[in-house]
């Protein structure tokens, strides 16, 4: 390896590690703090009766640190490909309209990628070496968002460089701010999916304007029951492919219409 390349890696590795770690810690930490601050409300909106224990949190955080490292390597790959001209990633100022449509496009593309990648990892020959580790969080917590095996972390992180390679070949220069917004959207939606507490109001899944937007119950059912609900941001792929959990709407109604918990239950 040339000294120039090693210098490039060394200068940027700590930066991308810090960025990927901070996204995870900020998103999971803020959501954890909110659940503690609004404990009574969170108790009423809990999806599962079972609660995660200390070893669950320890496993989730430890494996998430490994995932952060893998994500950082992929971020370095993107920067390296940008240096070679294979990826057209622009850090200059773009119009607000460009930032909006590029962010929307990458979110929709990622949802499609995630759905099919996720279903593939559930194949009987792939599940144990790749995705089983994530499903050890049967009752997920906000810290489970990045709790992946090394193999799954690679498949998760591969999306951004692959997407940018494709868009660059199509002659589309992506804005750095659009990628930035996508990455923050991704981690917060991921954490919300593993929250264990339903944030969305009653009627959300039955309203034609909101029913396509994923809820915490949607992904929580995936963790508790297995081969359903593979989508990340939206419900449409699960609907189109017939993989939505048959009790999804019933479970959402049960959780969102829960009555005030007894004082002793809240205190517990």
UniProtKB/TrEMBL annotation:
Its EC number is 1.14.19.20. Residues 104-243 form the Fatty acid hydroxylase domain. It is found in: Membrane. Keywords: Membrane, Oxidoreductase, Transmembrane, Transmembrane helix. GO terms for cellular component: membrane. Pfam families: FA_hydroxylase. The chain crosses the membrane at residues 21-42, 63-81, 93-116, 170-188. This is Delta(7)-sterol 5(6)-desaturase. The lineage of its organism: Bacteria, Pseudomonadati, Pseudomonadota, Alphaproteobacteria, Sphingomonadales. The gene is erg3.
């Amino acid at each position: 390896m040339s000294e120039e390349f090693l210098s490039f890696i060394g200068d940027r590795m700590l930066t991308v590690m810090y960025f990927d770690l901070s996204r995870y810690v900020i998103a999971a930490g803020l959501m954890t703090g909110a659940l503690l601050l609004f404990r009574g409300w969170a108790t009423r909106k809990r999806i599962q009766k079972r609660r995660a224990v200390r070893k669950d949190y320890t496993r989730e955080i430890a494996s998430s640190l490994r995932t952060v490292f893998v994500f950082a390597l992929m971020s370095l790959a993107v920067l390296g490909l940008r240096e070679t001209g294979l990826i057209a990633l622009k850090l200059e100022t773009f119009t607000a309209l460009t930032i909006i449509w590029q962010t929307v496009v990458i979110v929709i593309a990622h949802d499609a990628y995630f759905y099919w990648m996720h279903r593939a990892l559930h194949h009987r020959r792939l599940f144990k070496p790749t995705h089983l580790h994530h499903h050890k969080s049967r009752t997920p917590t906000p810290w489970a968002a990045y709790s992946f095996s090394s193999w799954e972390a690679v498949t998760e992180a591969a999306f951004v460089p692959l997407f940018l390679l494709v868009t660059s070949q199509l002659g589309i220069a992506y804005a750095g701010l659009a990628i930035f917004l996508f990455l923050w959207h991704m981690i917060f939606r991921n954490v919300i999916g593993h929250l264990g507490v339903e944030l969305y109001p009653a009627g959300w899944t039955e309203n034609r304007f909101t029913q396509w937007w994923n809820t915490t119950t949607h992904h929580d059912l995936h963790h508790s029951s297995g081969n359903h609900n593979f989508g990340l941001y939206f419900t449409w792929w699960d609907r189109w492919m017939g993989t939505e959990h048959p009790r999804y709407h019933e479970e959402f109604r049960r959780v969102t219409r829960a009555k005030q918990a007894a004082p002793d239950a809240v205190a517990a």
